[in-house]
Amino acid sequence: MEKVTRAEVFRLHAQICKALADPSRLLIVVELRHGSRTVGELSRAIGAAQPLTSRHLAVLREKGIVRAERDGTFVRYSLPDRRILAAIDLLLDVLATQLARQGLRSSAARRLRPALRSA
Amino acid sequence: MEKVTRAEVFRLHAQICKALADPSRLLIVVELRHGSRTVGELSRAIGAAQPLTSRHLAVLREKGIVRAERDGTFVRYSLPDRRILAAIDLLLDVLATQLARQGLRSSAARRLRPALRSA
DNA sequence: TGCGTCTATCCGCATATCCGTATCTGACGA
DNA sequence: TCGTCAGATACGGATATGCGGATAGACGCA
Asked: What are phi and psi of B83, to 5 degrees?
C-alpha cells in the first residue's frame, strides 16, 4: 500500500474545501440532502443558468462530492457520502454561533463588510 | 432579532469554506489543534515565509476561525471553536475513503492529475 | 530615545476563478 | 435519420487570489 505524502493530503483536502467554497455549490449540496436531482431541477433550485449549474456540478463531481448517473435524457445527481453534509452542518453551526455572538443587529452592514475587522 | 437572509448565510458559509480551502491554512489549523502558537512557530511549522503566514492568519482571523492575542512581542494564535477541527476531520475522512476506494496505487499520477476524471 | 525582534501590511505581477454566451454531445421519439 | 430536449463544454473578459519582496508598525529593553 503506497504512501500518499502529507503535503498531498493537505492539497487534496484543500481542494475539497475549495469545491464547497461557493454559495451556489453549497446550495446544490444542501438541495441534494433530501434526494437526487436532475441538473434542471438544481438549476431552478439555486436560481442559476443551466451552463453555470453544470459547471458547478462538474467541480463537485471532480472532487467526488456528488455522483452523476444518466436517467434517459436526464442526469441525476446525488450525494455518495453524507459526511459532507455533516461537515457543512458543523461549519454552519460555527457560523450561527459567530452571528449570535456578534448580535444580529446589522445584517445589512455585515453584508457590505464581508470580513470581521481584527478587533 | 433581525433576519439574516438565506443568501447571506450561504455566502458567509462559503467564505468560511474558502478560508479553509488552502493547504497552508489547513496546516495552520491542524497545528493549532494541540494548543496556541506564535506566528513564528506557525511559520516554521508550515514552512512558509513570515509575511505569507501572517496573511494566511489574517484570512483565518477575519472569518473567526482563529483568535489572536498579544503576548509581549509575540502574537499567539488559537482556535476559539473546536467544531472547525471536527468539520476538517470529517472532510479528511471523506478524502481517506475516496483514496481507499480508488486504490492508492498511483499517488504520483494523482499528483499530476488533480481532478478525478468524470468516470 | 534608540535598537532589535516579532508581526502586519503594501505593492506588483502571475495565475486562477467566475459567469454569460455560444456551441457541442448524447438520448429519445417520430 | 432528423428534430428536440437535457446536459456538457468552449471561449473570453472581468474580477479575485496567490505569492515574493519591501516596508511599516508594535513591543520590550538598554
From this structure: -65, -25
